[in-house]
């Protein structure tokens, strides 16, 4: 079966997001493929994956996180991760500079997204790459970061075994 990638609406921005001198870089992505995957990679900036449509499975060494509709997965910067899904998906990705992510959890986790946080993320995706940090856009980004820091953590984590034999078995079951 052929695998497809999640199509970023601005792939250049996502690729170079670590170099953008802003607290938050927001990117939207969609997929209409039967199956898609984004191979293991890492960012200097932390990543928030907010699922608007579909379900995403994100694999990190310690386990698998399920990201259902209206939830977000927080992945701290420097943590290798891969994502995959089936069917149509629509995702907003926020890449958050480590200095701006200080109040966010230090471990990977799934966060509940309130109505206000949804609106802030949706608005941030429309901002230009180099938004003016001293403007209304900069103030909305600050509010977004405050709301993220207060978002409740959801228990949507499936720990993976560390023993190589059990890990192979678990990977087979998941496939």
Give a structural overview.
It is a single chain. This protein has one domain: Jelly Rolls (Sandwich), CATH 2.60.120. It has helices at 11-15, 115-124, 136-150, 164-174; strands at residues 7-8, 24-31, 35-41, 46-53, 56-60, 63-67, 71-75, 81-86, 89-96, 109-112, 153-154, 157-159. The strands form two sheets. The protein has a seven-stranded antiparallel sheet. Strands 3-8-5-6-12 form a five-stranded antiparallel sheet, with no helix packed on it. It is of the alpha+beta class and 175 residues long. The chain is 23% helix and 36% strand. The relative contact order is 0.20. It contains four helices and twelve strands.
What number is the mean pLDDT? 82
CATH topology: Jelly Rolls
If classified by CATH, what would the architecture be? Answer: Sandwich
What ranges have pLDDT less than 50 throughout 5 or more consecutive residues?
1-6, 9-14
């Amino acid at each position: 079966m052929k695998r497809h990638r999640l199509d970023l609406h601005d792939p250049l921005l996502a690729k170079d997001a670590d170099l953008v001198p802003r607290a938050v870089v927001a990117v939207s992505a969609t997929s209409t493929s039967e199956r898609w995957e984004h191979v293991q990679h890492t960012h200097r900036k932390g990543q928030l994956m907010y699922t608007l449509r579909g379900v995403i499975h994100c694999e990190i060494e310690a386990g698998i996180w399920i990201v259902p509709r209206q939830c977000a997965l927080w992945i701290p910067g420097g943590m290798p991760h891969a994502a995959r899904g089936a069917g149509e998906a629509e995702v907003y990705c926020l890449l958050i500079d480590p200095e701006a992510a200080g109040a966010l959890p230090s471990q990977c986790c799934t966060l509940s997204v309130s109505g206000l946080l949804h609106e802030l993320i949706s608005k941030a995706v429309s901002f230009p790459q180099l938004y003016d940090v001293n403007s209304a856009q900069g103030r909305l980004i600050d509010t977004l970061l405050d709301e993220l820091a207060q978002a409740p953590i959801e228990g949507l984590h499936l720990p993976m075994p560390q023993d190589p034999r059990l890990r192979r078995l678990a990977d087979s079951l998941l496939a």
